[in-house]
Amino acid sequence: LASRADAAGARRLGISHVRGILLSGPPGCGKTLLARELARSLGAREPQVVNGPEILDKFVGEAEARVRALFAPAEAEWAAAGDASALHVIILDEMDAIARKRGSSTGDTSGVRDSVVNQLLSKMDGVAEAGNVLVVGLTNRPELLDEALLRPGRLEVQLKVELPDAAGRRDILRIHTRAMRANGALAPDAAALIDAHPDEVEDGALEHLVNGKPLPKSLAGATEHFSGAELAGLIRSAASFALNRAAASRSPSGEMEAATVTAADLMRALTEVRPALGERSQAVVRRFSRHGVGCAFHAAAREAALRLAVPPPESGTTRSALLIGEGTGAGTSSLAAWAASEVARTGEAEGVFFVSLAQLVDRAMASSGGASVTDSALSNALTDVFREARAARRATLVLDDIDELLKAGGNLAIATLGSLLREPIEPIHHASGRAPYAPAVIGDATAPSNSTETASTSWLAVYATCTRTRLTAEVSARLSFLFDETINVPLLRSAHAVSEALRCSPTSLLRPEVIDHAAGAIAAAWPRGVGVRALFRVAERAAARAQHVAQAGKVGGATGAEQAQSLAKLQLNALYEELGTPRFATGYVAPTRHTRPKPANGLSADRPASLVQPRTNMLGPYQ
Questions:
Q1: What is its EC number (predicted)?
Q2: pLDDT tens sequence across 550-561
Q3: What is the pTM of this model?
């Protein structure tokens, strides 16, 4: 855009001005604000901000007329003053609504959308274009735009607006609390929390409790994956808590204390305002079994899964692994979710995505207008999922139950998946010394001209899960060919393996003295092997049933050792009942049943009906 500052120099060099800029990125990252600041820094007239859907009209020809009306003031001034005319900036928000690829709108029988694109192309770089117009397009879906718009002479400068990094989040928080600081409405502890940088604050520098919980090192570090709009919402939420507290302090005379935002208000707001990307990460964590994914029997699979997510030395790679469970409930989904969340926890991945077949079907139905799910619709849904994952510089993607996709889709969906897994990722370029979301071209005009550009390392790790019993030999071979690695997740085939899985569970479902007895009973119930999902489901229900009976028959004055022994007996008895083999281990005495009226449904009166599950669901074919 330097030619705008020196029109005479541009004429001497024989070059034309840049006529268009495309800003793309996730919602709430400040694309509209950056476009306005760009117009202000260039000394342009008040920009015209137009939402793309507002241009469309029910009457044929009205949409094209509105496009011409946007350029009319600039053309009139250019005809009258030439190079002396002021710059006119047109900001087209949600540009993908009016500038989609021509011929892609299947429901547009009148051809209005294609005609709007043609009109926009001719106005930006037609026969008689004006040199005092700068079009700034804003979109979340740049891949939908017509290719003719992206060529030099039109939207030739294309910038990706990323989520802010820690330094950027701190600057944004400072901007939104500027008025609070000036008016003395920001408490010192809140100001220290906002001004701190996670890489510059020593551990313990801000160490004190707020509502019984320790403060984070910095608010910028605690707001990872927050966009600019979400950070603004965080500050508004904290301010509302301060205003409510001030209103509650109103005295009968009408006086009340001044509203002051404290660190406690910020931390409370942090529990209410969650980032969109963070919500997706939490969805992955919820998929990860809270009882763990096993210990020694999954050691090889855990190592292979983590090896896939080690950052590669080169940029722009997609690495993939297929997790094949030996049977239903082997824990492939939990293992993939655990590996993805573990990589995110260590900071190697910036985005974590979990996609199930149901979510893919929902996307496909939305794209097809609620009609039946077609192979092409599933292919488009897969493409959208990979596009969202690649929007993060370093991301992990979990495709759950990929074998079911083969049944729902066809050859096109599988071919699309293979193409997406082999497609390289374009590195994200940004000016060195600047945050990735603030390219140098949008920065201050006084920025040094010798700034260099660096490419951020971009990679995508894809985990896909399936079950061997649902795969044919042909499908298994096709899937193995698509992925870089194949990781086999076995079932638990021995009492020792079951015992190890129960002992290393972080939730400690069963008492330690019960585990060996329980492992033998579970291994006998599933002679062909048991998956971790079924294992922990049995243990969880047995523990819940034993706890309920223990609470109902609690005897006062019992020592801690006696209560622990009693709970161990109850857990083992409940486990035998869950497995359909009601018997008692040697040395254990059946708990005393309390006399209660027998329920009408015939169930035992010492446990609620909600704790009694059909045994056929648990034992399956091994009953």
A1: 3.6.4.6
A2: 877 654 445 556
A3: 0.62
